[in-house]
Amino acid sequence: MNTVSSHFRYTLSELQALLNKFGKRHFDRDGTNPILYFNVLMLSLQFELAIEFLLQHEVYFSDAIHFAIALAYYGLINIVDIDSITSGPSYILFLEFQPQIDYNRLVLDFARSLPESMKIDTVHYLFLLNLQTLYTATSSDEINVLKQKQLCIDMLVKTLYDFRDYSLFLGDVMRDGTKQKGFLDKYAELLGIDSEEKAVRAVTKRLADKSRDEGRLSDSVMLYNLSGNYNTVLSVLAKQLGNELFSKIHGKVELQAQSSMLDNGAASKARFNRRKSQRQSNIGVASGTEPNEAQEILGLVLDHYANSESIASKLDPKNVDTCQTLLVLLDFANEYISSYYEQALATIAKSNLFPIGYLILAYQHNIAPQSDGMNISVGNGGDGGSVDALEAANIAENLRDIDESILKSFPDILLATMDTIAKLYTGYKSSPFNDYRQAGSSDGKTANGYSSGAGSNKQPSMVLLKKMSKNMVIFAGMCQFRMPPDVFAKLNRIDTFIN
């Protein structure tokens, strides 16, 4: 058997060292043909150095990227660890004299350089961050494989969030409830998640969370709905509406409540007449009474969900009740702040938060008390002359489970309701007319913007308002959650003023 003399043995590393000794100047003296030296490095299997050399020439930047991608696909280049990041013009690191390419930064920089008109191409390049051949199949690389997958999803979420073209990439839900697939549905398997549907839902959920946190309300609602998180849609809208309700009503009640007790009859009469005149000339309606974005979206969402049996069956009734109550309370707040007290009283009855619903019903229909001026048989058939303690206790008990979006505004709503009662009572008391709600109105509208029923004298309405006031005070004492201590003092002052 012939043996080769050690003198004639020539290794690949020795060939690479020799070529590197000659350097690029030897192969391209005037710098006009960089491809030649690139080929030399490629043919000598110095792939990382070849890519780094080509990247130094801007005209070949795109070629260098695609060579790196192809080599990475076949597992022929060493890449920088995901936790290590290069900076500056160089995309290469040396670890124990072995070159490594910062593949992730290379792909991300190229994807970011693409114009907005190439959205789909940008996402295609992001999928390349999750090439299965970037790491070996050894157990030591399992963590890096997971990190690489997470990086791919993170960058995909960030890019789609910036593009904001969700129907293109994520699809849409049709009117009949069917899902129209988007771009991501076709290529979801490239994310390395168990199923395409699971992958798309995961990305959509991430986008929805990010939109929610960044204040993109309409986007977050659309995305949660698209991902099938219908209860989350309601929770997001409830939180938003709860914040808006608190912002609208908090701090607005105290001045109103104080004025209701300090006004004398003449001032109250003048104030109500002035508001009546303003409304007749379309002046003085608060600008905030128009439904805002969140209210409009929630109204549409609730209607859509109610008409879809498949969705309605998945909803938590508590979430639905919370949203419906918030819509009522926002209407009440708008009407109260705009001094539409008749309408505000009718609206608050719809919330079922206070044990005065049957009294408001009697008030609206001008149901007069019996001859003793105390007993009213209406609503629940009970004795209207005394506080319905059982109803008050039941409502107070139910409030223990009330959503935080309502709870934080509850003291203000309580005071606003009490103040509404006081304002109406003051109006009746100071009015020289027999029926305050019809006084001076030729079109059936009242000074408070509410159309009254059959004519009656003002005494029954004042009695009913007194009963409402008393019920509110006793109910407040039954509430189990903490309220500011001054709330009870204010309620008692108003009740004393009325009764």
TrEMBL record:
GO terms for molecular function: structural constituent of nuclear pore. Its main location: nucleus. Pfam families: Nic96. One of its GO terms (biological process) is protein import into nucleus. InterPro entries: Nucleoporin_int_Nup93/Nic96. It is found in: Nucleus envelope; Nucleus, Nuclear pore complex. Keywords: Membrane, mRNA transport, Nuclear pore complex, Nucleus, Protein transport, Translocation, Transport. GO terms for cellular component: nuclear pore. The keyword Protein transport applies. Belongs to the nucleoporin interacting component (NIC) family. This is Nuclear pore protein. It comes from Furculomyces boomerangus.
